[in-house]
What we know:
Blueprint: E1 2-7, H1 11-23, E2 26-31, H2 34-43, E3 48-52, H3 60-68, E4 75-79, H4 84-92, E5 97-100, H5 105-121, E6 130-133, E7 136-139, E8 144-147, E9 150-152, H6 156-167, E10 172-173, H7 175-183, H8 191-205, E11 211-214, E12 218-221
Parallel strand pairs: 1-2, 1-3, 3-4, 4-5
Antiparallel strand pairs: 6-7, 7-8, 8-9, 10-12, 11-12
Helix pairs in contact: 2-3, 6-7, 6-8
Amino acid sequence: MGKILVADDEKEVLELLKLYLEKDGFEVLAAEDGMSAFGIAQTENLDCAVLDVMMPELNGFQLLKKIREKSNIPVIMLTARNASSDKVLALDMGADDYVSKPFDPLELCARIKANIRRYASSKKESHPALLKAGSLTLDVEKCLLFKNDIQIEITSTEFRVLQLFMANPDRVFTKIQISEAGWGENAYVEDNSIMVTLSKLRTKLGGEGWIKNIRGLGYRMEIQNEK
């Protein structure tokens, strides 16, 4: 069904996830520290990564940043801390989901499979290979964004949100619709996380004009043709 990186410095967690994921037909590549996990991410064709936040050598946030420099695969963060700030940071840095410890392995496996399905569906051939809006071009198959033919780095969550807007120019979307597009239908996403993502997108696109707040309704993309 796919190849999954699981990085955690607790052997019990690695063994537990390996047991459950292999039962579901996944190949599991385990790492007990961030550097070992990074080596796997560089050399293997992964379908998903599950990263513990607190790891030696490279912590989960640092590893997530390195993975996002080259890949948009689904990444799920594991954290023993339940602080909202950690969750917001994980999502803002490009994580697709987060799970607090202790966790239910069946629920985590279900989240992994759901994120892999969403990632695969975003690359289906039924979608246009390229979405264009003014000076923007979104390569749906390669998950790349260009403005005036210059590539702009975006996270996987930003990619999915932008794909929603660019596929439906001038349509107004509510926060719930944006949340479902960016994080999935069953994910709980705080308003602050959505606002942070939209703010980051605006900055990368070049200003407030691209994604407008329609008071009392939601948000709409307005096409800009600036150079």
